[in-house]
Amino acid sequence: MTSTWTEPSNTATALLLLGRGSDPATERGVDCPGDLPAPSDPGLVERAAAAKAALGDRLFVLGHHYQRDEVIAFADVTGDSFKLAREAAARPAAEFIVFCGVHFMAESADILTGDDQAVILPDLAAGCSMADMAVLGQVETAWETLTDLGLAGDVVPVTYMNSSADIKGFVGRHGGVVCTSSNAERALRWAYEQGSKVLFLPDQHLGRNTAVLELGFALGDCVLYDPHKPGGGLTPEQLRDAKMILWRGHCSVHGRFTLDSVNEVRSRVPGVRVLVHPECRHEVVTAADEVGSTEYIIKAIEAAPPGTAWAVGTELNLVRRLALAHPEQQIMFLDRAVCYCSTMNRIDLPHLVWALEELVAGRVPNRITVDAETAAYARKALDQMLALP
Ligand code: SF4
Fold this sequence. Notes:
40% of the residues lie in helices and 14% in strands. It is of the alpha/beta class. It has 3 domains: 19-128 and 345-371, Rossmann fold (3-Layer(aba) Sandwich); 131-251, Rossmann fold; 254-333, NadA-like (Rossmann fold, 3-Layer(aba) Sandwich). The strands form 3 sheets. The chain has a 5-stranded parallel sheet with strand order 6-5-7-9-8, with helices on both faces. Strands 2-1-3-4 form a 4-stranded parallel sheet, with helices on both faces. Helix 14 (316-325) links the parallel strand 12 and strand 13 (330-333). The protein is globular. 48% of the residues are buried. The protein binds iron/sulfur cluster. The site of iron/sulfur cluster (SF4) has 13 residues, from loops. Its cofactor is [4Fe-4S] cluster.
């Protein structure tokens, strides 16, 4: 059977991310000193292969599931952010860890690897809009508000893996835990054994979906703290009554799926199963047939019987790869329009070639480092996650 994959409609932004067209008004934010190859260079694949071969066992390349195919082709291992951080930690002999993902992932890899190992992000502009929605100063202000109300002693901070090292460090300093989309339920159950309230950072949707769907909370048990408003935009009574204080952050990719997307695909494809990531909005998750992490989505598709139809609500690069790998199923993107993670897509073959050739030349480009104190507290919160029952 041939693949039934249908490419979603292109948008102008998506075409730019794919390297077609150019936007002179776009500020990339960082320079890559030296020879950054052009995207059209026909020798890029050979250059990447040659540089990788020259570095041999000194190099380990990690590729997040949302990366482009041209980058995934050079990854020694692929996975979600947590799996990749663990893979990095399990390679103490690798001198260079090239992280094809986004900034917070490279920070976690640096925290979990030795001081003699360099973690490299091929394009420093590859950040994460969700992680950027929780800044340390804002979180400290929120904690002061809770302290002034006499509530901080009851609150356990929990942060999603998709947060900066600063935020993980804050959470470790205040006795909290890091979680992933795979273990958020276990992390929250542990947190509610330590205190009566949780401050969940930075993804409101993962926090709300886990609290309501896994822990059985009412929506009214959750409040939304807006860091751009005094007191988070909440009254002292709302903060006192809440069991779950959700930070107002979201993923700009998963936040795009709507209830309309779900209804539209169900009317168009009879019998379709809707499979979404828990970073999607609550109404999307409750309307879906299955919800789970990136690794869960991959396993669900791999285990599905031939002939089944799936509308998948996660990043487009992964959905397209799953569709092409499973032509025996009808796999489609949940939305009609293209939606890439724009920051993940910053890592392209020219940047990978540039980073690898710099290493071959004896220069270490774009090294990501976390200061020792922040790393120690962040490690505490990560270790607490690893120790979850
Ligand atoms: S998909 Fe969402 S959470 Fe993941 S890196 Fe992109 S913006 Fe951040």
